[in-house]
Amino acid sequence: MTAEISGVAEAAEVVAQLVAADGCAWHREQTHASLIRYLLEEAYEVADAVDHELGPQALAEELGDVLYQVLLHSALASQAEAGFDINAVGERLAAKLRARHPHVFGDLGPKTAAELTQMWEQLKASAAAGEGVAAGETAAPRSAAVGESAAAAPQSVLFRGIPAALPSLMKAQKVVERQHRAGLEPRAALQNLEIDSAAAAYGAEIYELVTRAAAEGVDVDQALRATLAQVIVATADG
């Protein structure tokens, strides 16, 4: 066992003790639902460490906090009937990564980054159509049809796997990205919207801005975060 794996195994043992009957009362009271906020917060702290270039030690600590959440969810699940443990999570991940990278683990030769991205989406769609959530996809409400035709990608699976809880700007980017890959014009969807309030008008305007940014290869979420960081500094120095 390598030092990296033994470190993860040690962390898993610690978390298992925390949720045990004679462990920590707070941990025993937690559920998957009650832990959602912590998982999201820790993920954002990872992003913060990267955005502010806090260094490898800070990033390692924040990644450890995300791992803690994964271990905690797995430990709680292992106590449920027909549940799973962290080993099952790892095995499922390894199997999915091998299946999604046939150019590395299969017979396919090297491909360009663009071809690999397209292949990844095709494999995800095939897995979702064949096995649904069992294939590792995140269940999410299906979106209404956008535009008149989506022959390149059935509407029933076009937006599958986009988490409902994803922050709005990130979700908008995902939606626009899927539309582009399906051969759709994202802005065409605006014709089908009911703009009956100022809020709806602003929402449509933001969506249109996301489509323009995507066309120029700009990550609008990262762009806004960078701008806000400057605004905060400028205001504090004001």
Automatic annotation (TrEMBL):
One GO molecular-function entry: nucleoside triphosphate diphosphatase activity
Tree of life domain: Bacteria
Keywords: Methyltransferase, Transferase
Gene3D superfamilies recorded: MazG-like
Residue ranges of every copy of the NTP pyrophosphohydrolase MazG-like domain listed in the record: 30-105
Signal peptide: none
GO terms (BP aspect): dATP catabolic process; dGTP catabolic process; dTTP catabolic process; dUTP catabolic process; methylation; TTP catabolic process; UTP catabolic process
Protein name: Uncharacterized protein YabN with tetrapyrrole methylase and pyrophosphatase domain
Organism expressing this protein natively: Canibacter oris
